[in-house]
Amino acid sequence: MKKSILTSTALMLSASLLSGCVIHVGNASALEGSDYSSILGNIDIAEGKHAGDISSVNGNVEISDHGGADEVSIVNGNLEMGSHVKVRNIDIVNGDVSASSHLTVLKDVETVNGNVTLPSQSSVGGSVETVNGDITAADTKIEKHIKTLNGDITLSGNSHVHGDIIYRENESSWGSKSDDKPTLSISASVTVEGNIILKRPVNLDIENEALKQKVVVSYGSAQ
Question: Which residues are 158's β-sheet partners?
Fold first, then answer.
């Protein structure tokens, strides 16, 4: 899990730094393409508007239809997006990621304690990674990997994962291994080009027999 969000939170190097209010990108006072940071306030990107880097602490970020941003970094807040939204990278601690449809993420989607819901006709140019959050993708193309420690993974429709699906072992302080086994559910129509690597116990619900052959179990207590 990248720690770039901590750097942006500490430095707050942006064009606008506001506390305890709502930033509406689309108003005359908020310039399109600028960077925005907020503490104890929400950031809203209006329909069809595009921001630069966005950083929020204790506030939600909402991007309306056909809007966009570059780097989106949030501590303690959700990222809610409409349809046909385009962002470069998403990095969140304690918050969920969701969108309506046709989401485009050029690089990675990462959360610590938050769920990631990727809607129909979406694409991610990098990897999707959580620690304790669930990952749900419907008719979504993911160019690299899906990784989690404790989260459920649910893939459906014509989703296509070009890399691996990896359940990690605990290697950091971001999360502790849960005694409850997470569940990996993959519909028959889903394509996974890489392997399904299990470094911890996982409940498997895989409909495609060919994908079952790609399961690699690599933890010490495996039977």
Answer: none
CB 148 within 8 A of CB 129: yes
Asked if residue 148 lies in contact with residue 110, where contact means CB atoms within 8 angstroms, the answer is no
Give the integer Cα–Cα distance in Å for 85 and 178: 34
Antiparallel, parallel or unpaired: β 54-57 and 36-39: parallel
Q: What is the DSSP letter of 52?
A: S
Please tell me the pTM assigned to this model.
Answer: 0.85
CB 109 within 8 A of CB 128: yes
pLDDT digits (tens, 9 = 90+) for 144-188: 999 999 999 999 999 999 999 999 987 654 445 555 899 999 999
| Tens digits of residue pLDDT in 58-71 | 999 999 999 999 99
List the structure tokens of 101: 């449809």
Q: Is 137 helix (H, G, I), strand (E, B) or coil?
A: strand
Residue holding tokens 């997470």?
182
User: In 12-52, which residue ranges form alpha helices assigned H by DSSP?
Assistant: none
Instruction: Give percent above pLDDT 70 in the chain.
Output: 80
Tokens standing for 2?
Answer: 């990248």
CA-to-CA distance for 104 and 106, rounded, in angstroms? 6
Any residues with CB less than 8 A from the CB of 123 and at least 6 apart, and which? 103, 104, 105, 140, 141, 142, 143
CB atoms within 10 A of CB 29: 9
